[in-house]
């Protein structure tokens, strides 16, 4: 598929854009490749990605170390077909015609690797389902 206008785009949003949304974006890039456009952002972005989230992803061979938390913009939401929120509540702008999902996931902030692995694995299962629906 070379026509980029038909490529679905997904935006992952959490509060700090440091853990859950970054892991989800990493999985979607890994699983869908260039078939899906991937964005992530936070309503109150952290200074850096959660190092435990990075470690959990590296265990599966997915490197998210180059990513940086980004601020959520109205433009990012408008440019996305699917907006997946992870605990950002009312901070996420809403536009008619977009597909919205709210994934109830524990926040990995301040958690050890043993607590982050189940969150990571839950995200992976959700991403695999999402990819099967989008591509």
UniProtKB/TrEMBL annotation:
Q: Which SUPFAM superfamilies match?
A: Phosphotyrosine protein phosphatases I (SSF52788)
- Which GO terms are recorded in the biological process aspect for this UniProt protein? response to arsenic-containing substance
**CDD domains, alphabetized:** LMWP_ArsC
Q: What is this protein called?
A: Arsenate reductase ArsC
Q: Where is the Phosphotyrosine protein phosphatase I domain?
A: 8-133
One Pfam short name: LMWPc
Q: Which keywords accompany this UniProt record?
A: Arsenical resistance
Name the source's superkingdom.
Bacteria
């Amino acid at each position: 598929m070379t026509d980029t206008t038909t490529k679905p785009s997904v935006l992952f949003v959490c509060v700090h854009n440091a853990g859950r949304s970054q892991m989800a974006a990493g999985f979607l890039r890994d699983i869908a490749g260039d078939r899906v456009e991937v964005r992530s952002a936070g309503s109150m972005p952290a200074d850096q990605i959660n190092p435990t989230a990075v470690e959990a992803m590296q265990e599966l061979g997915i490197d998210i170390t180059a990513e940086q938390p980004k601020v959520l913009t109205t433009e990012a939401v408008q440019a996305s077909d699917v907006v997946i929120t992870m605990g950002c509540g009312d901070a996420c702008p809403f536009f008619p015609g977009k597909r919205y999902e709210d994934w109830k996931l524990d926040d990995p902030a301040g958690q050890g690797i043993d607590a982050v692995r189940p969150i990571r694995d839950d995200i992976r299962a959700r991403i695999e389902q999402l990819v099967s629906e989008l591509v």
